[in-house]
Amino acid sequence: MDIRQLMLTAGVGVSHVRVYTTPGPDGAIGGSPHVHTVCSEMYYCLSGRGYVETLSGEGYQKIELEPSKLVAFRPGLIHRVLNPHENLELLIIMQNGGLSERGDFVLTFPEALVKDPTAYAQAAMAKTDEQALRRRNLAVEGFQPLRQAMELDRSQGLEMLRRFYSRARDIIAPKVEGFEWVLKSGAQAEINAGLDALDFLRMGRVQYLERASCLAISAMSESATIGLDGKSHPFARDEKFMAEGKRAG
């Protein structure tokens, strides 16, 4: 699927996620701790109750999730969703057409895997539920030392975190050209369309309003995909809905 098919208004991607209901190696039920290097992301709690664990240069935090609560993440914030009651469902809103879940993520695997891009890529592949849970467990195993170091000794924790960020960069770097294409054809195109509309309004031209359209999607009617946090139903749109046109001269 062309990633542009996942882009909705403002070039975002949206998925409905039922969070994993099996425990990780630390006994906590939930998803895979990971970080994004380019994209922001939001978790909107649809139902159930749980938590989001976060880790950054500011330290460790545990945020409660409850219906109608939204938690937003900027690039660089390691996060993991916890589902202690096994009933958590989220609407995940992702920058750049869902790029955050389709390539712009690095899992917090143990250091030996993260420092070897080839080994990391092999461990990060998940085509079955069993592989997804194995991947989740590896990410939890690597997350725990980062969290413990940050809580026990901030300077040591920051050193470990910076080393992880550096290795995450090495994993992501080969994908940057493709990411740039996605940003330009999605979010940037949406911004340009808005700027075009301002130009048209200044010039008294309203013909562009005649090309308005709407979109209705039932994501739950499609088969679930394997996500980082659980079973995911992406809200995908037809590629023809992409904004297009030239800047007004």
Can you offer a commentary on this structure?
The protein has 249 residues and is of the alpha+beta class. The chain has one domain: Jelly Rolls (Sandwich), CATH 2.60.120.10. The protein has 7 helices and 11 strands. The chain has helices at 95-98, 111-114, 117-124, 129-152, 154-172, 176-185, 187-203; strands spanning 13-19, 34-35, 41-47, 50-56, 59-65, 70-73, 78-82, 89-94, 106-107, 225-226, 230-235. The strands form 3 sheets. A 6-stranded antiparallel β-sheet has the order 6-3-8-1-11-10. The protein has a 3-stranded antiparallel β-sheet with strand order 5-4-7. A hairpin with a 3-residue loop joins strand 10 (225-226) and strand 11 (230-235). The longest helix has 24 residues, at 129-152. It is globular and about 65 Å long. The relative contact order is 0.21.
